[in-house]
Write a structure and sequence with these properties.
Bound molecules: adenosine-5'-diphosphate
Number of domains: 2
Structural class: alpha/beta
CATH class of the largest domain: Alpha Beta
Number of strands: 25
Strand content: 15-25%
Length: 542
């Protein structure tokens, strides 16, 4: 017997309509590429997005077509997010920080038919255009006044001209909620990038999950600034969850330096911000140097790579900002877990509570996880055993785009490539990526634990721990450190700092000081590059 409830498909257009009807005058504020701050409301967003739908139809965009963007976080990108998916086409967010040949490879693999891009990327698109085989039309996301006089891009269209000429009468079509909505490629740290094809259903459900109190706890009482880019994994779902809850949305554009972010946060009274540790490091350095405070910021979600406990403490103890340590990946739309306390932890001492909060946290309803050994056998949830982390859920990938169907999952579970522990209460702790774990004499050493410790030293700005070859142990930890400006720190002092805090055999065999560490397009440590750089490094213990 079937239930007798309404069966409305979960469509992205419903988020837009909801925000326009129930939060009509809530603002979307953007720092534009052209310079000035732009502000309008959810009602304006919905009106212009309907115009955009007519523009897309006029350009010949068909259901299922991949429409690519090369853009920062801004209102036009937001219109494309909603407009493209809601007409039944597929929004393909390209990551402009990738190498040019990777971008060409990805756009050709996705067979993108249209490309919308920000002013910043005119020179890049001029170079790429001849190699983008399937792209039929190029649209520059700006107004007439900023259109380049003589561009090499064929038949270049102006976004604002198209919007201005379009009618705002448009009815969002209703279709199967499993229809593809958007496409995002992983950055391809190993081999070619892989396409993750989201559906309307997976994105709407994730937005629900993200808004929950134990997840990001978003509400219409918030002013939210996603610093995490919209070209990376749905900017952690915030572009959807803000419309679902009616939160004000503040989009920071291309300027990711501490000063720009801080000023926008203060001006727009941001209560909630999201970013990767590297960007927050810049922000914290800036406000520390200038002796500033956050006056409105209450919470920040940090993820994408492990949030060092020292950073969490600075936010919490010095600035009164609650840090939500989150874990996820492109293949998970990306939210998987967030660390928040349970009722029973209420009476725990703050230090003990922090030990939990430093972890990557509990799963959100909608995602399930387990850890297994190399033979695929489930490992105990005791907070000690660590193994390969597998997930499944409403917004977890089944197959990569154009991959052999059924070639990705293991017995219905997606192997994340992360190594983790899970404790009896379900708190998960990433100890490493499968590729980064240091295997010393067959035993595993967590590179993340060593990095977190190193960063806790007051003279350390950033640290990475990689495996270096050792004739006896096969691999041993090598610590690569960036010092804070104008401070002294020796190899011996660094190693002394580890004494008593880790098992003796986890002690790094050597410390190297460098000026900077390599990062991926999304601000993560690029350990592959580091390993390559130090592949012939001879440890003093070898
Ligand atoms: P890519 O795989 O292209 O680098 P993703 O954003 O999909 O981009 O990366 C997901 C990976 O990032 C996870 O599998 C995990 O290794 C790492 N990661 C994400 N969040 C955290 C976190 N809070 N702590 C540790 N690692 C994290």
């Amino acid at each position: 017997m079937l239930g007798l409830m309404q069966n409305q498909p979960l469509l992205i257009s419903s988020l837009l309509e909801h925000a326009a009807r129930h939060h009509a005058d809530t603002e979307v504020v953007s720092r534009t590429i052209e310079g000035p701050i732009h502000r309008y409301t959810y009602a304006d967003l919905a009106r212009r997005t309907r115009k955009l739908a007519n523009v897309l139809a006029g350009l010949g965009v068909q259901t299922g077509d991949r429409v690519a963007t090369l853009a920062w976080n801004g209102f036009r990108h937001l219109e494309l997010y909603y407009g493209i998916s809601s007409t039944g086409a597929v929004l393909h967010t390209l990551n402009p920080r990738l190498f040019q040949d990777q971008l060409v490879w990805i756009a050709n693999h996705a067979e993108d038919s249209y490309l919308f891009f920000d002013l910043t990327f005119v020179p890049l698109v001029e170079t790429l255009a001849p190699q983008l085989k399937s792209v039929k039309k190029f649209v520059l996301m700006t107004d007439r006044a900023h259109m380049p006089a003589d561009s090499k891009i064929p038949d270049l269209q102006c976004y604002e001209d198209l919007i201005e000429a379009a009618s705002e009468d448009y009815e969002w079509p209703q279709f199967d909620e499993n229809t593809a909505s958007s496409l995002c490629y992983t950055s391809g740290t190993t081999g070619n990038p892989k396409g993750v094809l989201y559906s309307h259903r997976s994105n709407v459900l994730e937005a629900y999950g993200a808004a929950l109190p134990d997840t990001l706890n978003l509400s219409a009482f918030d002013s939210v600034m996603p610093v995490v880019p919209m070209f990376h994994a749905n900017s952690w779902c915030l572009v959807y969850a803000c419309l679902l809850t009616g939160a004000k949305l503040v989009l920071p554009g291309k300027d990711m330096d501490g000063k720009s972010l801080y000023e926008l946060m203060q001006a727009e009274q941001v209560t909630f911000a999201a970013g990767v540790p590297t960007i927050w490091l810049l922000l914290l350095q800036y406000i520390e140097k200038e002796g500033l405070r956050f006056t409105t910021l209450k919470r920040t979600v940090i993820g994408g790579s492990a949030c060092p406990p020292a950073m969490m403490r600075t936010f919490q103890d010095k600035y009164g900002v609650t840090v939500l340590h989150a874990w996820g990946m492109t293949e998970m739309s990306p939210l998987g877990s967030v660390s928040t306390l349970k009722y029973k932890h209420k009476t725990w001492a703050p230090e003990k509570q922090n030990e939990l909060l430093y972890k990557q946290g509990r799963t959100i309803y909608g995602v399930d996880m387990k850890i297994v050994d190399d033979a695929g056998k489930s490992l105990p949830w005791d907070g000690r055993a660590f193994g390969n982390l597998l997930v499944k859920g409403y917004w977890v990938l089944r197959d990569y785009y154009k991959s052999e169907p059924g070639s990705t999952l293991q017995g219905g579970w997606f192997p994340t490539g992360d190594v983790a522990t899970i404790d009896a209460d379900g708190y998960m702790n990433i100890t490493d990526r499968t590729k980064d774990v240091i295997k010393s004499g067959g035993e595993w050493i967590s590179s993340i634990d060593l990095e977190n410790l190193a960063i806790a030293h007051p003279a350390v700005a950033e640290a990475a721990c990689i495996a270096a070859h050792h004739p006896k142990w096969d691999e041993r930890p090598l610590l690569v450190v960036v010092k804070k400006p104008n401070v002294d720190l020796t190899r011996e002092e660094m190693l002394k700092f580890f004494e008593g805090k880790i098992a003796k055999w986890w002690m790094p065999d050597d410390v190297i000081f460098v000026d900077e560490l390599p990062h991926t397009a999304t601000g993560k440590l690029q350990k592959l590059k580091l390993r390559e750089k130090f592949k012939d490094y001879k440890l003093p213990t070898a």
